[in-house]
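Table S2 (text version). Query chain:
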Amino acid sequence: TYPHIPIVLVTGYHSEMQDDIEQGLLLNAYTCLYKPLEIEMLSNTLMEINRKKLKELLGVPFKKSA
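Corresponding structure-token output:
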């Protein structure tokens, strides 16, 4: 495994994949996005991951946005 690599789950099967999604989140996936996927949502999520990583490197506390 590569714990330093953030994972974003993406699926179009919200209900059918609920157990797998929960398992992925328990295994430290950052979040799960659902199709139809808006590029802005994906972009915002990736920027949030980058900000979190930078703040960790700088030693600044990070609060995940809702």
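Notes on Table S2: Residues 8-58 form one domain. Helices lie at 18-26, 39-58.
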